[in-house]
């Protein structure tokens, strides 16, 4: 592998620790996967608890239309949506922090040249 030509300098004008920001981005990425898996797991568990009750006829009554039957499933399909939004948000925060680090590094490199 080739060694980078520029040396890393710790400029005294920075207000952040680069290593701390990188640890924070890694933590955000890991936490996003944990949150998503917990939301999906709870949604699947509640769906698997509901299905035997539904197929045994506990929730079905005479005169129910197809839309009424489909409405029984809608809470179980929308339950993981907050987890998906948290996942996307944490991944976006992690990527934005990395982009800001790149912008800061590029700005310093351009100022030196």
How would you briefly describe this protein structure?
The chain is an all-alpha fold.
Largest sheet data: none
- Classify the secondary structure makeup into a structural class: mainly alpha
**String of helices and strands:** HHH
Name the poorly predicted regions.
Answer: none
What is the approximate shape? rod-shaped
Give the averaged pLDDT, no decimals: 85
Gap between N and C termini: 25 Å
Number of helices: 3
Indicate the proportion of strand residues.
under 5%
Computed Rg = 25 Å
3D architecture notes:
With 113 residues, the chain is an all-alpha fold. It has one domain. Helix content is 73%, strand content 0%. It is built from three helices and no strands. α1 runs antiparallel to α3. The longest helix has 38 residues, at 18-55.
Write the layout of secondary structure elements.
Elements: H1 18-55, H2 66-78, H3 81-112
Helix pairs in contact: 1-3
Entry keywords:
113 residues, mainly alpha, 73% helix, 0% strand
């Amino acid at each position: 592998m080739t060694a980078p030509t520029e040396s890393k300098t710790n400029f005294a004008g920075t207000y952040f620790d680069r290593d701390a920001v990188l640890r924070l981005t890694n933590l955000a990425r890991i936490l996003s996967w944990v949150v998503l898996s917990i939301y999906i797991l709870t949604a699947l568990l509640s769906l698997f608890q509901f299905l035997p009750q539904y197929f045994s006829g506990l929730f079905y009554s005479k005169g129910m239309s197809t839309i009424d039957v489909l409405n029984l499933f809608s809470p179980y399909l929308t339950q993981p949506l907050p987890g998906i939004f948290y996942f996307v948000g944490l991944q976006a925060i992690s990527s934005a922090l990395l982009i800001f680090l790149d912008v800061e590094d590029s700005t310093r490199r351009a100022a030196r040249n």
